[in-house]
Amino acid sequence: MAALVHASVLPNSLERMRHERFILTRLMVGAVALGLAPAYLAWRGTLGTLEALIMIAAALPLIAVVTLSRSGRLDIAHCISASALALFIAALAGMTGGAGSPLLLWLAAVPTEAMFFGSRPYVARASAIAAIALGSVVILQQLGAFAAPAPWTAGMMPSFVMIAILYAMAVAVGFLHRRDDELREHRASDARAQLLLDNVGDLVTWHDAGGSVLFANAAAKALAGADPQDLRGRGLFERVHIADRPLFLKALSDAAHGGGVSTACFRTLFVPRSGDTDGRTPVSLWLEMRAHRIEDAGARDGVAVVCVMRDITARQALEEERARGHAEALKASDVKGQFLATVSHELRTPLNAIIGFSEMLSNDAQAWLDAEKRQEYAKIIHGSGHHLLDVVNTLLDISKIESGAMTIEQEPIDIAAVAQDCCALMALRAEASQVSLERVLGPDLPSVLGDRRALKQVMINLLSNAVKFTPVNGRVVLAVVRDGDMIDLSVADTGIGIAAADLPKLGDPFFQAGGSYDRNYEGTGLGLSVVRGLVGLHGGKLTIESAPGVGTRVAVRLPVGGVAASSLPVKITTFARAPRRGLESKEPVRLTA
After folding, report:
1. Considering all CA atoms of the chain, what is the largest pairwise distance in Å, rounded to the nearest integer?
2. pLDDT in tens, 444-473
3. Could you tell me which residues come within 8 angstroms of residue 61 by beta carbon, excluding any fewer than 6 positions away?
4. For 477-500, what is each residue's pLDDT tens digit?
5. Does pTM top 0.90 for this prediction?
6. Segment (H or E) for 272
7. R_g (Cα) of the chain, nearest Å
8. Domains located in the chain, CATH noted
């Protein structure tokens, strides 16, 4: 039997069963008919026209089997088989009374039998063949083509009726058997599909034209935090992140009413069921969805959408990391550009002074210069050299801090004495700028465990910035007070202040608020970066409060016991507001440098 089935239908189990059933029944009918033919010929002798047609009808099922086995066309083979049955019934009717023969009722078996093997087109073709056979019998009856019924046929009528009843029973049993086979095959196919869907790992959902979920597989537990039945209706939509719901609905709409295929990436947000995690922390996953339109007569509007959703959270994290890396690379490029622009300006200006004035001093043509001028030029060269050294030292410090090579040596430090030394160093610059420099020291200041050089550099950088950006007759205050196990060190000024848009960038290397090539204030923009790094090495916290036209207050909070005693995160905090003038100490000691 398997050898007679055409290769084109082997992958389809239901179609293969239909072909096997057709071949088996037609072989049986043909074999029985041809097996009885010799006995009938021996009994009847010479065959009449109608009897010859019956013999031809008996052989046609075998021809139908050969046609089906060679071509795989069940529709053509069934037409041949239906024509054979109709011819057999018409010939018998001609022998038993023509148009008045009760055997013509057998023609109803032609379309009935078609239901057993085919669908509506098969039944329609079989009905047409039966109608043609009936019409042919009626026309031939009117033309007088049929003779009187043979005497022997009168006794055969009960046999013919019994055969018709048995045939009808066989068709009914076969139809029920076919239905049971198809139901079993459908159940097996559904079970295989369900097993595949439940183990595929991707969330597969079936939606109607309105977007409601009709089916979901077992991956709903992992990707949506719910059982599959909980996603039906609007269950999946309610677990989509509220910001991504329009994108989700648009993808479904585009698939259902547009090109038939659409894609979207969205987030699901849900609280896992108890037993999966702690049951309280919401989980957010990125899903990539591919929606496909299919025609479904059972769905509303005859349209359905099948969606396959895959977890791309890890891939999304990699893409975000790549985007951050790209942004950081762009930022590094910008920093490099700022470095070249700023450092070239800071280096070229003193270098030009050193080269120019040194040439004037070494040129014999400038012998007219008196001792006072030579001393003035030498001071300019000396000051420019120190400025270059400060720039280079600052660059080296920030490089060490950012690379992690900077280390500090902690020792007990008299923070009040360090503050006094720094104010003394900055006094001349403040006086030259006509800025009042004050220091406020709280009572009972303890020794601080830290690096003396680093803390001194922090104070000098903060004071230098405050003096530089404070106009004439302005005021700069260095305050050091104790707050429990912490030291609050702050530098407040009445300077130009900082715009709110620039506050988040403070502390970035080479950044200068309002900086440009024609800026009014010299500097590399590294001072606050160095301060931030040194404060971080001490386990401290840096806070900046500023408002344009009011002034700036930079506060450093350091642990008395050094890095080991620090519980503060190393960070910089900025506030777009006017700096506070009050101090936490109740009885500060105010000194003026």
Report:
1. 161
2. 888 888 888 888 888 888 898 888 889 999
3. 26, 27, 29, 30, 33, 80, 81, 84
4. 999 999 888 999 999 999 888 776
5. no
6. none
7. 50
8. 7-149 (no CATH), 198-273+281-319 (3.30.450.20), 325-401 (1.10.287.130), 407-510+525-576 (3.30.565.10)
